[in-house]
Amino acid sequence: MIPNFKAHPWHGISAGENSPQVVNVFIEIVPSDTIKYEIDKKSGYLKVDRPQQFSNIIPALYGFIPRTYCHDEVMQLAIDNGSTDVETGDLDPLDILVLSSHNIHGGGLVMEAIPIGGFKMIDKGEADDKIVAVMVGDHAFGHVRDISELPDAEVKRLKHYFLTYKNLPDEPAKCRIDDVYGAAHAREVIEASKRDYASKFGG
């Protein structure tokens, strides 16, 4: 009899057969969450990180691309594209925000998404890219193929979250966004993070 087991969301699921054009995403947080969850790297289960601070509620589905890691390759890509005082990647899986019109009630699930761009975020010397994607087949966002197709107000809303979600009132900004990039560069970041993963954990 084959024992039951659960694949580790980071290591046991692929980045997607058609990655980086279409990627698998493990969703950790949904917009209705008032608690920030993140993957426990050892067990693969979701754990409570912290309550969301003040009004900073995640604006879309949020998670990571399996079998990615942000280290030297992701750092070098940031430097090659003009970022300064970057010392490393953030040593985590690559973060991804998935736009969808559907009301998904909780995290801990896997979906396919199409990367359309991202934010080159630098957080205290760490390259901490945030990929922006759309859920495959979504009725409102599924046709979008590049972040330039989104309304400016939507991009500003996403940027505002990432620039403020760690801050207490009246604190100086802890991170910055050096660039808003399109789908082509998002695919480069994904490939760099896959190479970082292979260097750290094997192919």
TrEMBL record:
Keyword vocabulary terms for this entry: Hydrolase, Magnesium, Metal-binding
Cellular component, GO annotation: cytoplasm
Uppermost EC category: hydrolase
One Gene Ontology term from the biological process aspect of the record: phosphate-containing compound metabolic process
Required co-factors: Mg(2+)
Any matching Pfam family: Pyrophosphatase
Alphabetized InterPro entries for the sequence: Pyrophosphatase (IPR008162), Pyrophosphatase_sf (IPR036649)
GO MF term list: inorganic diphosphate phosphatase activity; magnesium ion binding
Name under which the protein is recorded: inorganic diphosphatase
Protein EC: 3.6.1.1
